[in-house]
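Box S1 | Example of a co-folding query
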Amino acid sequence: MYLQRRFEERAAQSYQRGKFGGFCHLYIGQEAVSTSFEHVLNGDDDMVSGYRIHGIGLTRGISARACMAELYGKATGCAKGKGGSMHFFDAEKHFWGGHGIVGGQIPLGAGLAFANKYNGTKRLAVSFFGDGAVDQGALNETFNMAQLWKLPVIFVVENNGYSMGTAVGRHSAGELHKRADAYGMKNAVLNGLDLFSMIEKLQEVAADVRENSNPWFLEVRTYRYRGHSMSDPQNYRSKEEMEEFKQLDPIERLKSYIIKEKIAEASALEKIEEEVEAEVLDAVDFAENSPFPEASALYEDVYVENDFPFTV
Ligand SMILES: Cc1ncc(C[n+]2csc(CCOP(=O)(O)OP(=O)(O)O)c2C)c(N)n1
Ligand SMILES: [Mg+2]
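Box S1 (continued) | Returned holo structure for magnesium ion
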């Protein structure tokens, strides 16, 4: 969790220094969500998400170097520098991106689950998306088929309270998790700021999906401390609200729990922080010193259907 946090704080600094540009959406505040899923799921379960992807990419095991280099658009990045912040990707790690179309990853998650079931594996698929995606028609189309076909998929809305500058209460009617009721799909609300309760519930959900091959819809209530993207004056929320949520910071909360319960000494946590800091600085260094892709890379990894029947 701390790696995700420091990675992004450093990335934001680099962005502000003009080291890289384009879209960049930070996950700061939501780290317990990615971490709990990674803790509970297997490395070969499939994951797909939206554009707020850095935290999930790092927990999936893509190195800080490959992630930072991707932000910098360098050839050593996890998408060879051609995807950038929104399109982290690593097929070997069963990590299918990184998608910029709000809600586009919902049917993709069902597709991954369909493939897993069709091939007779016991692997799950997880599709993460934001509260802004819940009102996309694709969610309803996908939920219907996923429930009918009993697909082993967990749909996860990371409800961070806002879709760009619009509060969830202004863009979505009713409680988000209840959308699943219309399809008879199992659903629950989880506290995305609390790692332990997330892990506990996810263990139960993952076991159920694996055993019975039925979908779940989880509404994870979380919060993003930074703006929607790097250019967001955040006029839509108050300082008081931010302060209130800062008291619930998932990392600080975990730290105080560990110390209070004497699970580890403060010095052991400081050591982790130092190690993380070194890893992130190394990643920045690596990214800065890596080459940009060759111009010829424009013609690589391009999907071409030569025999597509409707082309002339
Ligand atoms: C289909 C589509 N419509 C609109 C947009 C523009 N857009 C980009 S991000 C965003 C907000 C999405 O918010 P949410 O789903 O809550 O995710 P969060 O940013 O909070 O992680 C919108 C509307 C888009 N990328 N795709
Ligand atoms: Mg949101």
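Strands lie at 46-48, 125-130, 153-159, 162-163, 166-167, 186-191, 216-221. DSSP finds eleven helices and seven strands in the chain.
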